[in-house]
Amino acid sequence: MRPVPLALRRRVFHWAVGALAGLALAPAAFAQAPAYPSKPITIVVGYPPGGSTDLMGRMVGTELSNRLGQPVVIENIGGAGGAIGAQKVASAQPDGYTLLVGASNELAINKLVTKKVKYDIKDFTAIGLVASQPLVLVASPASGVKNAADFIQLVSKNPGKYSYGSSGVGTSLHLAGEMLKSQGNLFMTHIPYRGVAPLTNDLVGNNLEFGVFVLSSGLPHIKSGKVMALGTTEAKRSPITPDIPALAESPQFKNVDIGVWFALMAPANLPKPVHDKLRKALTDALQSPEFRKKLEATGSVVASPTVDTDKYIASEIDKYRKIVQFAKIEE
Prior knowledge:
By secondary structure, the chain is α/β, with parallel strands linked by helices. Helices cover 44% and strands 18% of the residues. Strands 1, 2, 3, 4, 5, 6, 7, 8, 9 and 10 form a ten-stranded mixed beta sheet that branches. Helix 2 (52-68) links the parallel strand 1 and strand 2. The longest helix is centred in the first third of the chain and has 27 residues, at 6-32. The radius of gyration is 26 Å and the shape is globular.
């Protein structure tokens, strides 16, 4: 047997030493990997500051920061009914550092009404529902309408004469109005506005007969008597405004059940340990009496932590799809 050359033996020896050193360092390197979260988290809100989704995002951000021990930064990316901000999160790295507090518009409705939206709900990982708010159908002072029965009678006898306004085409407010038309067999014209402020001005100024608001946005005008609340749009009365009937209490609207909801979402393929940590932080927040009180003060109904968010959103998309098809809504 020929002896192994000295140079070859030295190379083998050095390779073996290097391999053993690598194995020795591997556990240390693994142990040094920072636990999530190790840096600030960004929550994207797909609307300018000041709206209901922005407020929800900031409240959730504060709670997550307190529970995860890292700063949470709110990034407002307005445009396209929340779709631009949602697209950014859908395209982000699934590492838990870019999240979305989104509403039903950008998560469930936009994809149904415009081909410009390229993301889908499957491009997100649901952390959990946060809260929901009912919508409210209101009448201008000059309409003379005081309740849902008056509304149905007036519009039924005058098909095409009256209009209702919303904050834009394809919003949950628009879909609520179309749901009322469908279930009540009513003929009304939809007037889309660029936000709640101009809609309010036309209602208060008696330039428009009816409108649909998010309850928290409409409540100040209802309390001041500037508009008349005809009913909320969820199946039961809101615990925030038990004196305002649910439209579903009227036989013609017995199946009316629509509102706006908010959810905490991450990009798809989020690692399970990161998901579980975020989920626990959100669940703990929703069970906190202090946080629940803050949410309820905005007119929100706090979501149950036991709700299966994926199933809930899927059922909401099915509901919206039927309304969009009925009304032939398309942008």
